[in-house]
Amino acid sequence: MRFFCVVLCCFCFSKMASANESLANTLQWAINDAPPFHIIDGPYQGLGLCDGLMDAVHRALPDKQRSVWLMPQARISNLLKQQSELCFPCMIYHGRHDERAYFSLPTHVYYPYQLITTKAKAAQIQLRYGNPLAFTALLADKHYRLGYPAGRRYSILQPLLDKTPPFLARTGSGGAIAILQMIVADRLDYTMDYPIIANYFHKVFDSELTLTPLQENDQTHMPGAIGCAKTAWGQAVLAEINAVMPQIRQDPAFLNVLELWAGQDPAAYLEFNKRHLANPAYNVSPLQP
Predict the structure, then answer these.
(1) What's residue 272's pLDDT?
(2) Residue with more model confidence, 40 or 289
(3) pLDDT-derived band at 96, boundaries 50, 70, 90
């Protein structure tokens, strides 16, 4: 019996070693259905910003195998908190690691959050609250119905939102686009999000919405980054990614995807992206955990 146990344990150790070796050569991604970050189906399938980012990473690291898990955002967040060995390519970089993940160097940048609504509603709201818009005052006005995807966090705006429950926090996949559809249908009045969300909506649904900057959102840009599990595996993966970050940032196909969702002036966006990524703070590698 003891001999059997020893043989069995040796077999288990062999399988574990093989699994660990395989994991070391695999980049395990978690993605969610959230266009234009990840586009799961339709005419632009695979052309989301973060789809393009993953492709650029694997072009820069051709020996890395790819594993992709599709799951809701809340599930991704919970798995990272549980230190599951995975990376999420669409996180916001705050200059430090957080309780969920280690972060890569910034991969690209977004224009800051703006108010998104119809042209007619934008004219009404701007008349009352200005342009740039006094967002705190608008939040207090119960005449206008605010909606946004459940589980989303809005950086510097979040403390204001925490004090004002939305008319609707929409659950499920594709939440940001569903919110914009409800605004067009006059079931909601406004939301706030990255301009690329409105750009995607216009391109796919041929329904133009209006963007208005917010007085309280004084961030000049929002840096995106890859987040990986706070484990030795996550650190090792990010060290490899950071080592090839210049190649990832300059990947022609990735830049084409960024340009696709950049809006009316793609050249201005690409220059904006390049300028902010040149920030010395975004180019210190490797990031220390």
Answers:
(1) 97
(2) 40
(3) confident
How far is the C-alpha of 181 from the C-alpha of 18, rounded, in Å?
Answer: 48
- Return the percentage of the chain with pLDDT > 90, whole number: 69
CA 241 to CA 225: how far, in whole Å?
11
pTM here is: 0.86
Confidence check: pLDDT of 258 > 70? yes
DSSP characters for the chain? -HHHHHHHHHHHHHHHHHHHHHHHTEEEEEE-SBTTTB--SSTTTT-SHHHHHHHHHHHHSTTSEEEEEE--HHHHHHHHHTT-S-EEEEEE--SS--SSEEEPSP-EEEPPPEEEE-HHHHHHHHHHHTTTB-HHHHHH-TTS-BEEETT---GGGHHHHHTS--SEEE-STTHHHHHHHHHHTTS--BEEE-HHHHHHHHHHH----EEEEBTT---S-EEEEEEEESSHHHHHHHHHHHHTHHHHHT-HHHHHHHHHTS-S-HHHHHHHHHHHHT-GGG--SSPP-
156/80 Cα distance (integer angstroms): 23
Check residue 145 and give its pLDDT: 95
pLDDT surpassing 90 at residue 59: yes
Predicted confidence band of residue 7 (pLDDT cuts 50, 70, 90): very low
Q: Which residues contact 238 (CB under 8 A, 6 or more apart)?
A: 102, 103, 104, 226, 228, 286, 287
The DSSP bridge pattern shows strands 26-31 and 65-70 to be parallel
223/220 Cα distance (integer angstroms):
10
